[in-house]
């Protein structure tokens, strides 16, 4: 049954490059032990992450292109920008301490005229002192009178919980937009592990899949490609030989098939590197089990 009090909505993060958007995302997500999605591309927003709680779902996205100089903006781009402002339930305008320059007036006017709540997050306050902070607060209050201002340090997680709480207050009552059970606690690496594991289940005899754990050590997204390095962990040297197989053929097949599925899943080209490592008796080691998410105690 749907909880009548459930809240859900779209929160759009805007701001100049390098002001700390990703760091803020990580602070939100880390704190709630929630998820970052598979960077789902929708027509209007680029979803950065979804933070789920029992009674809320925050869908965070940013608006690429919005801060580019006006001369680069084409008509269609302006529509895009407009829709980003209209569709969001809350706007997070991220600035950093010391930043004053408003490079794009049109964009700035959209913020000051926004019909939805604007939270102006003054980030990186750990880099300044009190007088700089006071000056910045006064500056932004005057420039964006419709905004609620929060002084934060995304890196040090200072002020972030307060922003988080305020966002939840501002979200409209709504059922979740994305399935919560499928997304909670499952970062991108989890999906990578699952896809590789599935191929191992398909291609090896019974006992092997149960001795295997996948650990994705690297997940690095570039503009056109995602570079992934995953370890296939086994308990014994003999299992390593079986996984690699005759002239490496079976392992190669796992890699090729997993990569194909990963490309479908992430909607992007994937470079996947897999290697096999013996981790003696990992299944009997509590610390290891916890690391792989089996033992939550
Ligand atoms: N001192 C300090 N540094 C921060 C803080 N937040 C972010 N940074 C740093 O600022 C730099 C840029 O942070 P990102 O989170 O990558 O910024 P971004 O806005 O996502 O950058 P783009 O995606 O390139 O637009 C990194 O070196 C961060 O470590 C903060 O609160 N304090």
TrEMBL record:
Q: Which terms under GO biological process does the entry name?
A: ribosomal small subunit assembly
Q: Which SUPFAM superfamilies match?
A: P-loop containing nucleoside triphosphate hydrolases (SSF52540), Prokaryotic type KH domain (KH-domain type II) (SSF54814)
Q: Where is the KH type-2 domain?
A: 204-280
* Region (G3) location: 62-65
Name the residues that bind GTP. 15-22, 62-66, 123-126
Q: Which domain of life is it from?
A: Bacteria
Subcellular location, in the record's words?
Answer: Cytoplasm; Cell membrane
Which segments constitute the Era-type G domain? Answer: 7-173
UniProt key word Lipoprotein: no
- G4: region residues: 123-126
> So which residues are the signal peptide here?
none
Under the cellular component aspect of Gene Ontology, which terms does the record hold? cytosol; plasma membrane
Q: What is its main location?
A: cytoplasm
Q: Where is this region: G2?
A: 41-45
Q: Which keywords appear in this protein's UniProt record, sorted alphabetically?
A: Cell membrane, Cytoplasm, GTP-binding, Membrane, Nucleotide-binding, Ribosome biogenesis, RNA-binding, rRNA-binding
Location of region: G5: 152-154
Q: How does it sit in the membrane?
A: Peripheral membrane protein
What Pfam families has UniProt attached to this entry?
KH_2, MMR_HSR1
Q: Which GO terms describe its molecular function?
A: GTP binding; GTPase activity; ribosomal small subunit binding; small ribosomal subunit rRNA binding
Q: Where is this region: G1?
A: 15-22
- Indicate whether Nucleotide-binding appears among the record's keywords: yes
UniProt xrefs under CDD domains:
Era, KH-II_Era
The entry's function note states: An essential GTPase that binds both GDP and GTP, with rapid nucleotide exchange. Plays a role in 16S rRNA processing and 30S ribosomal subunit biogenesis and possibly also in cell cycle regulation and energy metabolism.
Subunit annotation: Monomer.
Similarity comment: Belongs to the TRAFAC class TrmE-Era-EngA-EngB-Septin-like GTPase superfamily. Era GTPase family.
Q: Tell me what this protein is called.
A: GTPase Era
What species is given as this protein's source? Rasiella rasia
């Amino acid at each position: 049954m749907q909880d009548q009090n459930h809240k859900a909505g779209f929160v759009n993060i805007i701001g100049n490059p390098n002001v700390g958007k990703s760091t803020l995302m990580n602070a939100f997500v880390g704190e709630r032990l929630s998820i970052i999605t598979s960077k789902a591309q929708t027509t209007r927003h680029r979803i950065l992450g979804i933070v789920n709680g029992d009674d809320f779902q925050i869908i965070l996205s940013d608006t690429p292109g919005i801060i580019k100089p006006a001369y680069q903006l084409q008509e269609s781009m302006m529509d895009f920008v407009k829709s980003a402002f209209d569709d969001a339930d809350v706007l997070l305008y991220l600035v950093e301490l010391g930043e004053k320059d408003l490079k794009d007036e049109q964009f700035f006017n959209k913020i000051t005229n926004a019909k939805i709540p604007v939270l102006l997050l003054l980030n990186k306050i750990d880099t300044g002192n009190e007088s700089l902070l006071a000056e910045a607060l006064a500056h932004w209050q005057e420039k964006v009178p419709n905004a609620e201002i929060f002084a934060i340090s995304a890196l040090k997680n200072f002020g972030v919980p307060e922003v988080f709480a305020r966002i939840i207050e501002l979200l409209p009552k709504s059922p979740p937009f994305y399935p919560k059970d499928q997304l909670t606690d499952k970062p991108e690496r989890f999906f990578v592990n699952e896809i590789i594991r599935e191929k191992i289940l398909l291609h090896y005899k019974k006992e092997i899949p149960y001795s295997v754990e996948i650990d994705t050590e690297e997940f690095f997204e570039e503009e056109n490609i995602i570079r992934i390095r995953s370890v296939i962990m086994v308990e014994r040297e003999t299992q390593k030989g079986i996984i690699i197989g005759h002239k490496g053929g079976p392992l190669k097949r796992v890699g090729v098939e997993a990569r194909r599925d990963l490309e479908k899943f992430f909607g992007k080209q994937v470079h996947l590197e897999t290697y096999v490592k013996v981790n003696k008796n990992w299944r009997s080691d509590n610390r290891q089990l916890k690391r792989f998410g089996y033992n939550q105690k």
